[in-house]
What we know:
The complex is a heterodimer. Helices cover 0% and strands 41% of the residues of chain A. Chain A has strands at 10-11, 29-34, 40-41, 57-62, 65-74, 85-91, 97-102, 118-128, 134-142. Chain A has a five-stranded mixed beta barrel with strand order 5-6-7-9-8. Chain A has a three-stranded antiparallel sheet with strand order 3-2-4, with no helix packed on it. The model of chain A is unreliable at 1-5 (pLDDT under 50). By secondary structure, chain B is of the alpha/beta class. Chain B starts with a strand and ends with a strand. The A-B interface holds A 12-13, 16, 39, 41, 43, 49-50, 69-81, 85, 87-89, 91, 95-97, 99-101, 110, 115, 126, 137 and B 122-123, 125-126, 129, 135-142, 144-146, 148-151, 154, 156-157, 160, 201-206, 251, 253-254, 379-381.
Amino acid sequence: MSDGSNTDYVPLLPGAYSIPGETGEAPHLIGSRCRACKATVFPKMAVCPACRADGTMEETAMGASGRLYNFTIAYVAPQGFQAPYFQAFVDIPEGPRIFSLISDDVPVETDALEDGMAMELVIEAVGETPENVPILTYKYRPAGR
Amino acid sequence: MRDVAIVGVGAHPAGKFPEKALKDLGREAIWNALRDAGLGPEAIQTAYVGNSLGGLLTGQEGIRGQVVTQESGLGGIPVINVENACASAATALRGAWLEVASGLVDVAIAIGVEKMFVGDLARSISALAADSELELSQMGMQFSASYAIHPKINLKGRMAQYGWTSEDFANVAVKNSHNGSLNPYAQHRRELTVEDVLGSRMIADPLTLFMCSSIADGAAAAILCPLDMAEKLSERPPIKVAACALRSGAYRFPDDGAEDSVTLTANEAYEKAGIGPEDVDVVEVHDAMAPAELLIYERLGFCGPGEGPKLVDDGVTTLAGSKPVNPSGGLCARGHPVGATGLLQVAELVWQLRGEAGERQIGNAPKVAMAQNQGGLLLGQDSAAYAVTLLQQ
C-alpha cells in the first residue's frame, strides 16, 4: 500500500510507476536520470551506475511506449503467478531495457507478439492480496489496440 | 602469497534425500574430503561454508555453517558463512584459498551444501527466485525463461542471430546426460536422446524440461593447504589452485558493447595462472540450462561468437574430445544443489586430474582444469556473482 490510506489497490513495486487516477497522467514508469552524464535507469537508483556520482540522479517519467526486445512463454510459474504467461524485455525510448510482463489483453500465444513491435505501457492487476485487494504492476501490450 | 593445493575432496551425491538434513549432507561431504586427504577433523583450522537457500527452505536462517561443522566434528575453529546464490561454493573456496595463501592458517576447508527438497516444490521454486533481485522476483521473472530471453544470455535471440536450433540445444543436454549416466554422484543418470530432450515438455520456449537443471539436495567439500605441505602429505601429485577469480555483476546498459562478465572473470583467472584458454584440458561450466553451455564456450575463449554448436557436433567437448566440458554431467545431469554446485565442479575436476573419475575419466592425462560458476540476477542485467577457478597439476 503506497500510503496506508488507500485500500482500492496495492502497488507491486511502490513508487516505480504512476497509478491511473492517482496522478491524472498517462501511465508511465518512474526511473532516474543522471544530471551529470545523462544515464537513465529503471527502477530508480540513488547513485549513478554509469558515472558513479552521488546526488545527481533525478526522478523522471519514462516508458509510456517502447519496443519489444524479445519475449517467451513460460509454462511454469513461481507462487503468485499463473502459467502459461509471457515474459518479455522491452526497450524504452529513454534508454533502459526492462523486464516486463505482458497485458492480460494479449492471448498467450507465440504469434500474438513479434520482436521489435511497438508497445504501450499499461498498469494492470497481477493477482490480489489475501484480502482480495488488487495488486497493480506495469505491463506492456502492442500499441494502438 | 603462498602457492595453495587441494589435498582432499569429497561429495554427497546430488538428488532427492528426504531423510537427510542440511547437516547430514554436509557431514558426508566433509568426511569424504577428510578421508581423501588422509586428515582428521582436528587438522582443519578454518571453514568456509557456502549455502544459499537454507534460511528460506529449512528455517535455519543463521549459523548454517556452524550447524554443519559442529555435526562433523569441526567445532571451535573459525567458521565463515558464505552466501552468493549459485556461486556460493566457489566463493567459499576462494575464502579458504585466501586464508591458506596469506599464511594465516595451513589447513582450511571449503564446503558447499544445499537442501532443496523440503516436501513442497512450489516453495523450493520460489526460494530459487529469491536469488534474483527482489523487484525481478516480485515481477514474476521465471528462472528458465530468463535464460531464454535475458539480454545477457538470450538463447532465443542467439537462434535468430547465429541460426542455432533446438537440436543444437538438445545435443548439449544429450552429451551431458551421457556423462551423468557414468557418474555415481549424478542426480539424473538416464542417458537421453535428442528425441527425449525435444519431446520433453516445454518449460520456457525454446527450453524443454530436459534442457533445464532441476532442484536437488547435495554437498561437496575441498581441503586446502600450502603446496609444499601437500607434497609431503600424499604420494599423489598435488593439485595446485592456480587462480580463484571472483567478480560481481556490473550495471549494464543496452548494447553497451562492454565485455561479458564471464569473460572478464575468466581473463582474470587466465592472467593470474599465466595460461590461456588453449591450455585448459577439462572444464566444468555453469549450465543451469544446458544450451547456455554453447554461449559459455565463447565467453571462456574456446571458440568464436556463434561457434558453440560446432564444438559439440565435432565432439570436441565430449569425454573423448580434446576439451571435455562437464564430464560430471553438468548442472542438468549431475545436478544443481545451488550452494554446493561450485565445489561439486571442483571435486569432479580434482578426480579428473588425478585419473580417479572412473567410467567418465577423460584421456590425455589432463594437467589444467577450469570451473566456471555463477549465480543470482541483478536489475542491472548481470548475474550477481561470477567465479572462475583454475586447477593445475
